[in-house]
Amino acid sequence: MPTWNRAALLADALASLAAGNRVPDEVVVVDNGSTDDSVAVARDAGARVVEMATNAGFARAVNAGIEAASGELVAILNNDVVVEADWLERLCNAIADSGFAVGKLLGLDGLIDGTWDAVCRGGCSWRCGQGREDGGVWNAGREVRFAPLTAALFRADVFRQVGMLDDTYGSYLEDVDFGIRCAMRDVRGIYVPDAVARHRGSATYGEWSRDTVRLLARNQVVFVARNLPDSWLARYGWPVMVAQMLWGLVALRHGRFSAWARGKREGIGLFRALRRDRHVHDAQKFHKIIREAEDEIQALQKATGYDLFWRLYFALT
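Above: the chain's sequence. Below: its structure in token form.
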């Protein structure tokens, strides 16, 4: 469990784990340089604490926690998530031969906060189901390829097979990048709708804070640089431009256009170096995976009601 300040949320998250039907064999809290009493809260709850000198970002903190953990199954959990009593038990029972298992995340308003992730050719992702009413398609278990790292259970050997999280991202989209690398190695997961947790979304930075928008805008470019195959411009250039510009309009609508522009400048500044050090994917397999993920977004949007962003993206691409 990575954490940065918000000690009260951390206490609630740890208490929910301790009250579960299946209590974790160990809890590792990675503190990202908190200035409140988060470290004391974690130790008082019986967690082992890994202290980072500064806020090194979500990805690096999760990597430190994975390296410190000793179990064959490793759950990753945000500090702003409270799990129901049978959450971990259901995921452990369901994972079987899958590489990972994810449950249903509900927001404080009772709407879906997330289930599994998907990504489009343009480098933007969707936390499937976000903002939808609970029920219907979200109550059916299924195989999935992308695990949101807000709350998920992994086999430890997946990280030995696929590698650790790419800490270039810092925070945001590192889980989608990891999902692509899992899919390229045919590591698949299972969605367990009865494993329910409640998420106070973006509690660390704030949902539409300048930092959140800047990091998302930057990391959309990082994802393109890290993952799109050679000659990407000819095959993916138009979807990338459409997705990135539409997300800029979303940021503008929330009064965060300058943060979006700053993030894009940062991403573009890193682009050439990241392309030299990109993940090497089989181009045809990558295209099949990302096209299937995009088709899944479109099918789910059509079935549950289009968000404006996705309606425009699919109309234009």
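The chain has a mean pLDDT of 96.
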